[in-house]
Amino acid sequence: MKGIKFHGKCFLADPVKKRYHTASEDCNAMGGVLGTPSSDDENDQLRDYIRQSIGPDEQIWLGFNDMITEGTWTDHTTSGITYR
Q1: CA 60, CA 82: separation in Å to the nearest integer?
Q2: Is the pTM of this model over 0.85?
Q3: What is the DSSP string of 26-51?
Q4: Cα 75-77-78 angle, rounded to 5 deg
Q5: What DSSP element (H or E) covers 11?
Q6: How far separated are the first and last CA of the chain, in Å rounded?
Q7: What separation in angstroms does the CA of 8 have from each of 35, 36, 55, 65, 81?
Q8: Number of Cβ atoms within 10 Å of the Cβ of 60
């Protein structure tokens, strides 16, 4: 698999379908975390990379969840989300 780097962040799309916790653990094992876009440009580049690398209709896990409070989505730093 080949990733991409932009805005000082590295992203790698894994085409293997897996549950959120497994995807997160796999990222952690490689020294990273699930991706969290933080600008319009970063969001667009990540979307384009996903479409080109694993397909236009595929979905990925991002580093957001509502495990602390159901319905309140945050990133791994517990900051609120702006991009999806």
Answers
A1: 17
A2: no
A3: HHHHTT-------SHHHHHHHHHHHH
A4: 65
A5: strand 9-11
A6: 23
A7: 12, 13, 24, 23, 19
A8: 18
Three-class secondary structure of residue 5 per DSSP: strand
How large is the C-alpha radius of gyration of the chain? 13
Place of tokens 């990273």: 32
Residue type, 50: I
Q: What does the pLDDT look like over 11-66, one tens digit per residue? A: 999 989 999 999 999 999 999 999 888 888 988 999 999 999 999 988 888 888 88
Q: How many residues does the chain have?
A: 84
List residues bridging with 49 in a β-sheet: none
Using DSSP, state whether 22 is helix, strand or coil.
Answer: helix
